[in-house]
Amino acid sequence: MLEIACFEMTSAETALKSVADRIEFCADQQLGGTTPYIEEFRYLKSVYRKPIFVMIRPKGGEFLYSDMEFEQMKKDIVEFKKAGADGFVFGILTAGNNIDTERNRQLVELAGEIPCTFHRAFDRTPDLDVAIKKLIRIGFRTVLTSGGAENAMKGKEKLRALIEQYSHQINILIGGGVRSGNIHELKSFTGGSYFHSSAIPSYETFADDDEIKKLKNAL
Length: 219
Prior knowledge:
By secondary structure, the protein is of the alpha/beta class. The chain has one domain (2-218): TIM Barrel. The chain is built from 8 helices and 8 strands; from the N terminus they run βαβαβαβαβαβαβαβα. The chain has helices at 9-17, 38-47, 67-82, 101-111, 128-138, 156-166, 183-190, 209-218, and strands at residues 2-6, 22-25, 52-55, 87-90, 116-118, 142-145, 171-174, 194-197. Strands 1-2-3-4-5-6-7-8 form an 8-stranded parallel barrel, surrounded by 4 helices. It is globular. The termini are close together. The relative contact order is 0.14.
């Protein structure tokens, strides 16, 4: 399964027309992805049939949110759910970078049958094994991770361990510097089945259809 992270409409449309399996739609690439505009999402859903997972993140930076920001996250899930979101991507940590069990559970319950992915805030937690067990109990279907490292290649040993231990309970979505030049090695080494990439070539700005094809073919 290949998911393409899309931070604006050009990349989103390129990926939705491509051989990718789904997209993660968000805004503000420089902030690592925030909640996109609902109007843009509605347009994409009106034109394309491919699944669109929506980032729910009211700001960049730390994954610690005020009460007001948390209420905004709940409102966004309700709004995007009504608009036809195929999945949600979010993650809330405590001040000590542990999983905020209660707040994440509230959002997962609000999403209902719509699958939820815990994003790379996971890689900031002090113990990935403790964290992933919490995510499984909360009800997340997927966790996006580079194995706690700067990128997936550097974290491939931990990724393999996570996949061996937990992939029967939660999908391990490998992300962080995944490109056509390394995805085959990552797949072979980790045994992973789920991959996440922006598919933006070096020195480019938008997702590239040829890169998406190379990523998919390498799987």
